[in-house]
Write a structure and sequence with these properties.
alpha/beta, formyl-coa transferase, domain 3, single chain, elongated, 36% helix, Rossmann fold, 382 residues, six-stranded parallel beta sheet
Length: 382
Amino acid sequence: MLPLQDITVITLEHAIAAPFCTRQLADLGARVIKIERPGVGDFARGYDERVHGLSSHFVWVNRSKESLALDVKQPDSADVMERLLQKADVLVQNLAPGAAARLGLSFEALHERFPRLIVCDISGYGNDGPYRDKKAYDLLIQSESGFLSVTGSDAEPAKAGCSIADIAAGMYAYTNILAALIERGKTGLGRHIDVSMLESMAEWMSYPLYYSYEGAPPPARSGASHATIYPYGPFAAGDGKTIMLGLQNEREWQVFCEQVLQRPDLAHDSRFSTNSRRSAARAELRALILGVFAVLTIEEVVARLDAARIANAQVNEMADLWAHPQLRARQRWACVDSPAGVLPALLPPGVSGPDGARMDAVPALGEHTLAILKELGLEEAP
């Protein structure tokens, strides 16, 4: 039995934040009924066609769900929603600001009738405050949260290559829902969860926030290198390939000088005697490191780093990740069905094998409408 096998989640969701949250719940066994607009569905279905005609975003965050095509703006849909919520444990929504309240789906409107129902709202800026009604997308929140100010190079900022603000909000919604389920087991009552993308990203930005405490200069944009720890970032070997390495403390710096650079004198060089000094002199130190690496292949550099137990990593691309030997050795790949056929899917982190998670199909739009309506005692959609 999976941990959430008896939990039913109703979700009015689109894009990434809420779907990512509810997919985690589905992974743990929850029944997730995804309500989509008839004929159109979640607009993330149309982001691209990279997975045999399906959207890469949609395939990622929507497996193991049931798709119910229902226009919740139509008055007749209220009866369907009422019957669904009678059986539900959790309602999740990330509609446009204020839309759920206008539909009568706020926690305040539902709590008296459904006291055990947990209602989770996911939005850009939260349910109150001066930014409440402002539209928000992942890149906009990366900007608003200050993430872009510390990411990129001197020349220009850069966004994260994945939907980091959506993922942050989705994970905080997921963990808060799990906590609310535990709380309900003690009190018998559901509660309201209000998760904003801005607050989720602000939490993740706490290191640069504190680094800039009381007006101190913020971390500089430093490309793929660490902004304040050095050497920590990419370095080219003599064959043109790049290794990512990271030193965390003075002991590692000494070993790095002795065994990797084979320059023990540098360990006692006053220019590099602390991390702050190394970071301040990074251009000079980088030239020294590249000078040593220039006569070595990437395999020789990695061999020296591994022998010295200095953290390092390959600078992989997507094809490398698909074929990553560690993922294969740990059997992290499974298969799920979809409207385009069987697709590979990663097991959720923390799950030891395919039996430890729900790995059901990615649904077609409205695929489960008739079955769900019949279950509710209805013949057809309003």
